[in-house]
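User: Is it possible to get a 3D structure for a protein together with its bound compound? The compound here is 4'-deoxy-4'-aminopyridoxal-5'-phosphate. I've pasted both below.
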Amino acid sequence: MARVHNFNAGPAGLPLAALERAPRDLLDIEGTGMSIMEHSHRGKTYEAVHNEAIALLRELLGVPSDYDILFLQGGATQQFALVPMNLRKEGRSADYVITGAWSKKALKEAEVTGKARVAVTTEVEGKFLRIPKATELDLDDSAAYVHITSNNTIAGTQFSEFPETKAPLVADMSSDILSRPIDVSRFGLIYAGAQKNLGPSGLTVVIVRKDLVESGNQNIPTIFQYREHAATNSLLNTPPTFAIYILRNVLDWVKSEGGLAAIAKRNDEKAAILYDVIDERSDFYSSPVEKDSRSKMNVVFNLPTPELEAACIAEAQKRGMVGLKGHRSVGGMRASIYNACSVESVNALATFLRSFKK
Ligand code: PMP
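Assistant: Yes, that's possible. Here is the predicted structure of the complex:
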């Protein structure tokens, strides 16, 4: 078996240790004669996996007891709609910090069901090259919440510090959840599609303060209410059991690696290896984003011409390095180096990029 060096943006590479546990449990988990996928979601075997995943997330992220952890479906995109539907009371507005294509989509979806305003945008001529300074935010203190995208998967920028807000802070952490320790108590709600740092697609994690759950709107369909999912431990209807099983395995791996402090240290090291190549004296590789806004998850860079970029991507592919094409909306190259991407893979890419330049 030859595993590639996987730089996909999402679905992305998963930790080998998390995948290696799966084949056995796919046929017969714990001697029950059934696959984890064939168990009832209300049976003991599945329930243990479900609750272990929640407990591990709580432990690893330090989620306080006054927060619920929900397992939902519909991707982060569904949360673009559910956050305002649940948290924004009739007549109230919500503030959006626009730092990329995903925040724009979140805002657009919020506008479908009510009022939303832009607290700041860093878009210049269709490009997002930086994270705003705290002083640039024009916040409405009576807003239902302030929405940010903690890591901009396409633009390659990331918040290194989170803004202070009077209204509850809501963060789309799809592409950097679990990549570093965070203070969950700074947030009213955090959501993330699983397919980058958590597990397979089809699962969305929502971490939400209980008072926001309890005061959430009730004039929306039951299936869309955080309250209903919280009250049923995310077993309101059939959850994506296999995706949650893999999440459990991934979380176990994160714990065995030393938790988020150790993971963050390795992520810092990986990002530094690639940005060092990009910053080396020469104008061959360049980073379009401002230095202090650079993402440690999605390293976006350019070569002198689109033709050289295409050649570089093709040569890398021949050497078993996949997923290096930039998002179709911005072009260029992008190396997504989520938790499961090893230092070894990043070193292999750095070595290749240096030789390609020569
Ligand atoms: N937000 C961010 C930051 C993302 O990177 C993505 C997907 N790449 C999404 C939202 C959309 O996620 P989903 O496909 O799970 O709806």
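The mean pLDDT is 97. The two ends are 31 Å apart (CA to CA).
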